[in-house]
Design goal:
By secondary structure, the protein is mainly alpha-helical. The chain has one domain: Up-down Bundle (de novo design (two linked rop proteins)). It is 71% helix and 0% strand. Helix 3 packs antiparallel against helix 4. The protein is globular, with a radius of gyration of 17 Å.
Length: 132
């Protein structure tokens, strides 16, 4: 039996790959947070991290560049929300300076990539047949 797994377009995007890796990083780091943060920062940070890659994936399923760009905007907003939570986590001494700097750098790279993707999506026009 020969089964081929379909690779979806979002899986080929470097920004999706990097944001998925960020989710893994956030999950691992938040395991060491205090138990009383389970429904606070841990939950919020994990949801934000997942939201970045999830919205990239969902946006690729949209047909217009404008619709795709909207999901990229949501990903960008989630990245900024996560950055805020990373800053708070560092201030509260839940993460080390090294982890803080690594997360900041990764989020900065992702937001730059999202900006580029957003511009590309807004510039793409779906061409329709003349006789439609």
């Amino acid at each position: 039996m020969n089964t081929t797994i379909k690779i979806f377009s979002f899986e080929k995007l470097n920004v999706w790959k990097k944001s998925k890796a960020l989710s893994t990083m956030v999950y691992k780091l938040t395991k060491s947070f205090p138990d009383d943060e389970r429904f606070g920062l841990i939950s919020q940070m994990r949801r934000c991290a997942i939201s970045i890659s999830s919205n990239i994936a969902e946006g690729t399923g949209r047909h217009s560049g404008k619709d795709k760009a909207r999901f990229t905007e949501i990903s960008y907003s989630s990245a900024l929300e996560l950055l805020n939570q990373v800053i708070l986590s560092y201030d509260l001494k839940f993460i080390t300076e090294s982890d803080y700097l690594k997360l900041r750098e990764t989020i900065s790279e992702i937001t730059a990539m999202l900006n580029g993707l957003h511009k590309t999506q807004l510039n793409k026009q779906i061409t329709k047949p003349i006789n439609s």
